[in-house]
Amino acid sequence: LLGDGGRRAQQHHVVFPDTRRPRLAGEVHEDAEGTAAQLPRAAAGAVVDHGGFEPTVGGIQRDGDVPTGPVVVDPVVDQVRERLLDEGQPVIISYRQERDSIARLRERGAIALQADFSDEAGIMRFIEQLRTQCRGLRAIVHNASQWLAETPGAEAEVFRQLFTVHMLAPYLINLHCSELLLQSEQADIVHVSDDVVRKGSANRSAYCASKAGLESLTLSFAARLAPRIKVNGIAPALLMFNAGDDEAYRAKALEKSALGIEPGPQAFYQSLRYLLDTPYLTGTTLTLNGGRHLK
Predict the structure, then answer these.
(1) Percent of the chain whose pLDDT exceeds 70
(2) H or E stretch covering 74
(3) For the residues 120-128, what does the mean pLDDT come to?
(4) How many Å apart are CA 164 and CA 145, to the nearest integer?
(5) What residues contact 254, with CB distance under 8 A and at least 6 apart?
């Protein structure tokens, strides 16, 4: 769930079928007589988490004159996925490059779909793959995020790539998978943005603009898909430090929020769980920043 990278989050969707319905493809369960059986594919009620792009080693983005996101890092992402699996929630993830963490999730029963969201064709291929795995979706969580510098001479291409990952992929997946969401009694779409959108960035204007566009899509799809499908967002700031961050940097970063804490992976998981469980909330983006806007 969510992007696995730090400075540039990775590309991952997580799909978790509704636990009130049959489980995922290949998942062994017991029928009424206790006989082991396997289902041909995922049943209605899954959640798609659309996240990240191109893995990078390390943790969260450093603060400074650049955005603080993507701020979901390997430990955060992995723990959120593990929490969902611990709760018995079947999970489907998408990935661009094979990694040990993907293999571990497969071992726990998750379905992993390889995908590339860098262009329209890759996005549509993922959608077709998803259709072969799911008869329905419980929710879609979009967190595809690419962290690119706007280097001189390449600005237009950088903007195109950021637009494709941050906006076109969620837009097309929402359009083509909304009928799958309607197969679930409860249905949600969650867009993961970035707290930096509220103030912009001198050094990453294209990144901020495309993430702001994602927040606009939250409002548009909330209006379009109501009342059957809720559409909300999460805009996180700092969640977790890198292991190598020194005390001076940590103290400076913590001073930027009113609460002054490193909340850890549970803060994001609790926000996601709240959006999925709350029946009377749509068109809202949760600001998960510890009160940075108050400083």
Answers:
(1) 75
(2) helix 74-86
(3) 96
(4) 10
(5) 238, 260, 261, 262
Residue 92: what pLDDT? 81
User: Residue 231: what residue type?
Assistant: V
Q: Which residues are catalytic?
A: 207
Total Cβ atoms within 10 A of residue 34? 6
Q: How far apart are CA 217 and CA 212, in angstroms?
A: 9
Nearest CA-CA partner of 266 in 108, 23, 84: 84
C-beta separation of 241 from 74 below 8 A:
no
| DSSP symbol at 293 | G
The 10s digit of each residue's pLDDT in 14-34 is 554 433 332 233 332 322 332
Q: Indicate the residue type of 25.
A: A
Determine the pLDDT at residue 4: 32
Tokens 């994001």 -> residue: 268
Closest C-alpha among 221, 146, 130 to residue 180:
130
Condensed to tens digits (0 to 9), the pLDDT of residues 52-87 reads 433 222 223 334 333 333 333 356 777 888 888 898
| Alpha carbon separation from 165 to 216, 240, 263, 272 (Å, rounded) | 15, 24, 27, 21
Q: Residue 78 CB: number of other CB atoms within 10 A?
A: 17
d(CA 118, CA 126): 11
Q: Is 58 left (phi over 0), alpha (psi -120 to 50) or beta?
A: left
